[in-house]
Specification:
Helix content: 55-70%
CATH superfamily of the largest domain: Cyclin-like
Largest sheet: none
CATH class of the largest domain: Mainly Alpha
Distance between the termini: 76 Å
Number of domains: 2
Length: 322
């Protein structure tokens, strides 16, 4: 009798859980239908794909856009002053940051990490440096700790601390890396769930290519690499911090579509991104200029990466004319 009662209780619990899940999903669909009625439906083909979370994706994107300013580093943080009126970053500058990020692009590629890891790494570095000063000697340590944290957050199999000791040519010990990891996490108050450019890029690329759903897989792959190449070019570039990640993503898709001979400003992209074309074009011009200079720049990690056949050599494409 006890076993039968336990079994009945378990069945009832499962039914309740299913009922609650179904109710929440139904409410989400109803709310989304009302709040997002003006948005073109680009998720119809993914209704049965749980990884695309079609019931919640519009609310998720609304939330990302809402909190984006909270986790966006100041575009002028290198000029900030401390409480004594001294320059917060007295020993490092934009050029040193660019060298660090360029090196991390190579490390990221060598470790075969997820794209999300690279973008979170750069976000952590900028947010940390906007709060805490760093010496030249410890700047690379900041980058190593940021990638270690981002890897633990995003990767299934994250590199170990000893891997970062090796990749930095033993410039820092295991204890130093772990100490910086703790210092950084405390400075950022453990806030790691943040929207990065890559989150917006994936969504807006889907919106921008919606009408080309029947295009060949190779063409779609080439366009995806092109868009990602453009936003990665912006990562080492301190001046790119003037643009929100969501705007950079929209502009990259705009440029990518134009470079691939498609409508550069489809209705689906305009409505889902929420940006006016004027703002997008200003950012797109900046990305196109980075693209034009990339092959002759002194820091070439991103250009070399996307000149590889693995990425369909998209770095060799002609820049968009904006």
């Amino acid at each position: 009798m006890a076993q039968q009662a336990q079994a009945a209780s378990q069945v009832a619990s499962e039914m309740l859980h299913h009922s609650l899940s179904h109710t929440l999903a139904s409410r989400a669909q109803t709310n989304a239908a009302g709040a997002h009625a003006a948005l073109p439906d680009i998720d119809a083909a993914d209704r049965k794909n749980p990884q695309c979370v079609p019931e919640y994706v519009l609310d998720i994107m609304d939330y990302w856009r809402k909190v984006e300013p909270l986790y966006r580093p100041s575009p002028r943080y290198m000029q900030h002053e401390d409480s004594q009126g001294r320059k917060l970053q007295g020993e490092i500058n934009e050029r040193m940051r660019a060298i660090l990020v360029d090196w991390l692009v190579e490390v990221h590629l060598k470790f075969k990490l997820m794209p999300e890891t690279l973008f979170l790494t750069v976000n952590l570095i900028d947010r940390f440096l906007a709060k805490k000063s760093s010496t030249r000697k410890n700047l690379q340590l900041v980058g190593v700790a940021a990638m270690l944290i981002a890897s633990k957050y995003e990767e299934i199999w994250a590199p170990e601390v000893k891997d970062f000791v090796f990749i930095s040519d033993k410039a820092y010990s295991r204890d130093q890396i772990l100490q910086m990891e703790k210092y950084m996490l405390n400075a950022l108050k453990f806030k790691l769930t943040v929207p990065t450019t890559y989150h917006f890029l994936e969504r807006y690329r889907k919106a921008g290519t919606f009408r080309y759903a029947g295009a060949s897989a190779q063409k779609e792959k080439a366009l995806a690499h092109t868009c990602q190449y453009l936003v990665e070019l912006a990562q080492p570039d301190y001046a790119s911090l003037q643009f929100k990640g969501s705007l950079l993503a929209t502009a990259a898709v705009h440029c990518g579509l134009k470079m691939h001979g498609r409508d550069p400003w489809p209705d689906t992209l305009a409505k889902h991104s929420g940006y006016p074309l004027e703002d997008v074009q200003k950012c797109a011009k900046h990305l196109a200029e980075l693209h034009r200079k990339a092959s002759k720049a002194s820091l070439t990690a991103v250009h070399k990466k996307y000149s590889n056949p693995k990425f369909m050599e998209v770095a060799k494409e002609a820049p968009a004319l904006i």
